[in-house]
Amino acid sequence: MGLSRHIRVLSTLLLAAAFALALPLAARATTTYTLQSGTLTLTVDEYSPTDGRLYRAADPVKVAIDGATVILDPETAAIALLDLQAAPFVELALNPGTPSYEVDAYRTLIIDAFSVHAADGALLGNGSGFSFTGGASVDATLAGAGGYGSYASAAATPVMPGHLGTGSIYGGGDSVTLSGVAIGLYASPFNDSRFVITGNFDFIATASTAPVPEPGSVLLFLTGLGVASFAGRDRTGGRRKGSEFAR
Amino acid sequence: MFPSPFRRSRAAFALLAAAVTSSALLAPVIGAQPCRADLFYVQEGGVEGAVGCTTPACTTQTFDLAGPAEVFGTLEIDTAVFPPTLSFDLTLWNTPVSLLETVAGTEDNGVAEIELSDVLYSAAGLPATEMLPGTFSIDFGATATLDGDQTQWNDANFSVNGTPAFFSDSDVQVTGSCLVVAPGDASCSLSFGTGGFQLDVGDPVPAPRSLRHTMNLVLLPEPGEELLLISGVLGLLAVGRRRIARAR
Best mutation site among B44, B218, B220 for testing chain A: the one with the most A CBs within 10 Å? Predict the structure, then answer.
């Protein structure tokens, strides 16, 4: 008698625990992905106000991405967050035709950091593309070196706010692959130069939390638990009857 | 009652001069109008990133770009329509896009290098979104046509898979953005593939491989157009002046 009550209490507790666990799991539809590996290719074009044209400031440089976070909600076809950072410390030898080079202010542009932050995006094309129409913040930290010495690292001021173009996204579940481009026009922290900095990124990110079980899986689990508890109840009931019969 | 030939020619010259002056004064204003089609010419840049992967997701990359390959051609941003559209015709200049095996000595299905030459990247009227004034992002779902020649080589420098051969893909996914810095000056980044950009790689049984080409371009207006306009105006002025002189 005492044993069966214990089993019933235990089963009830287990069921309650399963419900308590299942409800928040079912409510949490987003998955957070963090960087596994990826590269960022940085290209710099300098705008010369004297002749009103753009110059490719230096050859593009490919660097490793240091960190990235992506939060996806496939149910609402949303990409809630795309965060990407790189601290490459790359030195770009500027084009001799550029104003910065001509006045010898600095002939080497150093990109200390490049980051992209965008929220409230949408998944497109059955989840194979993404877009952030709400805008993004694309930030760069620049330093310089020239004939008159070096310029300490400072945040570049966006002349036109940076934007994140449409990109492609593959996968889902355990890992996703993203590729896209972020572009911004910045004023140099040191003089009147203006730079277009383009960052082409490709990276693979893996789910950092356990995947959310489907509602079907939760139901199956709860049904199994219920059957197990009933079986336990029957067994205790049978044992009780048996004991009465034996008596 | 009727104006003399001299007066008539002087009036014509005055009219011409007024037209030239007003067009010169109006040109920058018209140029600053947002609703127009801007035709840009590639000044610098080209294919500066390329990959070859076993699947479109590119979790396994087997080829990487050996070096940048310049392109030339035109790109047009039409803001006179809604949504704005992008059109382009871009062709590889001299250098082919050379894709090398990511790790030396590890051929992918018997192929160590893929060379794509004379590639034409073209698309017309791709819808775009002007996210902020001067920043255009190609709407997702846009496709371009890529065609050209391809040759595949193994580690012993023998061509495989019966190449060279012509390839053509008409539904290559294209994404990217343009930033118009000043009237006529733009910086664009375009990415072709991996969606819809496939090539059969290897021998004796070729396997499909997904490719992506990424271009970063510096775009400027065609200087020839400005020269043509200036020379035309000068020519008209010369004709007008000669007429006046003749009338005198």
Answer: B218
